[in-house]
Amino acid sequence: LHPKSIYVIRQYMHDGECGCLEAFGQGESLLQDPSCTEELEDRLHFYVEECDYLQGFQVLCDLHDGFSGVGAKVTELLCDEYSGKGILTWGLTPVTSNVGDSQNSYRLMNTALGIVRLSSHSSLFCPLSLSGSLGLKPQPPVTFPYINYDASLNYHSSAILAAALDTLTAPYRLCASQGSMMHLAETLNFSGRKVAAAWASVPFPALHGYSLPDTLSAYQQDVPSKQLKSTRVTNIFSQVPWKNQRIGVFFCSSSRHPGKPPASPLHACESTEQVLQRYLRAVFPGAFSTSHVLEQPCNTLPPYPQFFSPLLTRQGFLLDKPPRYSSAVESIPVLAALQSSPVLHTLLHGLYRDLQRLNPRRWASFFSAGVEEADFREALEELRTLSQCYETGAEADEAEDEADSD
């Protein structure tokens, strides 16, 4: 890493039982220090001046601790100083376990404030986590059929999220790409929908020796992907329509066999892009979608963890049975999608309801760090308003009944 890309916060410990950056207000106050802001701006200008074409900024930020406040102030600075540029923010949370009451409450409050503030200053905000829940009650982590990972190891969970993020951002990162970061955000952030949901299949279950049409034909009813944000909804792909979506898939295979009649409409397509687009229209009729197919796979060479199923080949394709001699998986096909979906109402409104049950007076230390209780209540209402942007008709009726009962 270039020395200009690193800024160390020396006021707090990275880990430990005390002296941690644990509250949103602590993170915000760091960026209110003129010397800190000046240092950050200097580092930003160093890179901006080196750019031939500045699309915007990617912000990766922890939501569960005080870095939520740091990220909120950073995105506010970027929004003010670089208006018109894209700001894509990814809110990261670790897999939750049975933690103390105080830690759990801090986590919820940091997460809620982070979602509200980060989304308001970003072109698009997307939560990324393998945790089963953002709420009060911990849920089992997301599982992947061909990965045996330890959710308690950041080394493992971050590798899965990195593969998904690498795929999701490819449409505007590649030199040959026609779309920009801002264009991607604008296709999803309509009508106040500043939050997107991420899905991924890591690895994409492609059988060795089969083409992309062969593989997709086996998933006509249910896309083989997992949701990378914390809400427990079973088989969500077949339950709700996709209002907007972007899909990137790493795959390299032939779709047609000269001299043979096509086995299905997918096999009749001229290119892999047409295959994927036709598949999306068939599985999600009426939904607007844009897809991208990349020929290069997702590399999993060291230091990427080798936590893959023995059924995977060196190139990440599936075998019927484990080979006699196993070898390290060097690359995998990945499918990932960003979407604006009603499932986000479940996530955001669920977090709002959990926080409504908390008594702020019990957590005076959280508010003494710099967040006023009135500002927190206002942020909760903003979270509720944000969740309403993703309501379906039935959910809107339920919300009205709930408001009447209140």
Automatic annotation (TrEMBL):
Check the record and name the CDD domains matching this protein: misato (cd06060)
Gene3D superfamilies hit by this protein: Tubulin/FtsZ, GTPase domain
Q: A Pfam family matched by this chain, by name? A: Tubulin_3
Listed GO cellular component terms?
mitochondrion
Localisation: Cytoplasm
* Limits of the DML1/Misato tubulin domain: 2-174
Query: A GO biological process this protein is involved in?
Result: mitochondrion organization
Tagged with keyword S-adenosyl-L-methionine: no
Query: Which keywords appear in this protein's UniProt record, sorted alphabetically?
Result: Cytoplasm
The keyword Cytoplasm is annotated on this UniProt entry: yes
The record's section on InterPro entries has: DML1/Misato, DML1/Misato_tubulin, Tubulin/FtsZ_GTPase_sf
| Protein name (Swiss-Prot/TrEMBL) | Protein misato 1
Q: What is the lineage of its organism?
A: Eukaryota, Metazoa, Chordata, Craniata, Vertebrata
